[in-house]
């Protein structure tokens, strides 16, 4: 064994303590660490020929890179829809690396069984019935990809074709219908060979991002399609009428995929849970966990009522892998053969804090978003582009949005991202971090008030 590697093995417990101490320093600095860093990276170095050992690598990371990492895990990062990592989730993630389980196969480890248990817990958390199965994937993009892949397989069946085996030859082009499709839906159609131009963006209700049901019904009258319904749009957290969309299947055949990347957590909110009425009628559902579940990147779940189609699409044929059988290994259900034990941080989070603890996070974040919206409404030249429906504040300013956001980022106190809503350039503030409080929202407002 390489002598440096052997030395690290001999000192492994002490070295992990050193890593722990360094992580503690990082976490303790989150309140003061710049929320985002637009600065230059350090000068590149050449590949080391002689290793420095783990302690040397820790020193080099601290010297060259650590202070250039953002404070995105902290309470004032409002870009995209990004959670942090709760203490239990961090512990689970550390153990994930230490255990280093191979989730491709269930042979020799109970790790796949823990994943199945975690998926069942999440299914219950979101109010899905027991007819749904699921599996962990990397994020909302891959979860949406899986859902649309199953929809593509279903679509082929409507014309007597097997899309997984033969592609979609000799069938009409597959249409993907949605009022406000997330960019990952469009990306998925490209990866699936359906084509970005087959995404048909339908009219929405006046002043809303929810699809106009009359327009959807008119499009469905043209033939089978995939319908992507939203449970929480990224700009305004708008919800399609899932029950009304599902009822259209009494007259028209379509695959119903619900993109609920972060909006599924409305199930935990006493006020917002009714928005998910009809979710149980979906064929596939996307849920992203490194958003509101606050587990480390990357983690998401895809749910479906048609695991048979899932095996048809993703089964991996090789002699050493075996037949999928009645209880398929996850390599027959997801795009990845090599799968990280992503379920463990989520299992720890759910075990540690339960449904009630995560409900408190959702309701506190919602209260913080509303408070920021109220305060922004008092600033001349700032205009809310939509009501603060849940955890996202979408607003416009009179000045140049990119310049304003650069100025906000330069303060180091918060980070927001740009958007365009109904043709109007705007700014999004998305609350999903477990540390964020209403007081943080007020501090963020003071930064914005003096910067915008």
Automatic annotation (TrEMBL):
- Species name for this entry? Winogradskya humida
Q: Which family does it belong to?
A: Belongs to the group II decarboxylase family.
SUPFAM superfamilies associated with the record: PLP-dependent transferases
Cofactor(s) of this protein: pyridoxal 5'-phosphate
What's the superkingdom here?
A: Bacteria
Residue segments, region Disordered: 33-53
Q: Which keywords accompany this UniProt record? A: Aminotransferase, Decarboxylase, Lyase, Pyridoxal phosphate, Transferase
Q: What is the lineage of its organism?
A: Bacteria, Bacillati, Actinomycetota, Actinomycetes, Micromonosporales
Give the matching InterPro entries.
Aromatic_deC, PyrdxlP-dep_de-COase, PyrdxlP-dep_Trfase, PyrdxlP-dep_Trfase_major, PyrdxlP-dep_Trfase_small, Pyridoxal-P_BS
Return the Pfam families for the record. Pyridoxal_deC
Q: Which GO terms describe its molecular function?
A: transaminase activity
Q: PROSITE patterns in the record, alphabetically? A: DDC_GAD_HDC_YDC
Listed name of the protein: Aspartate aminotransferase family protein
The keyword Disulfide bond appears for this protein: no
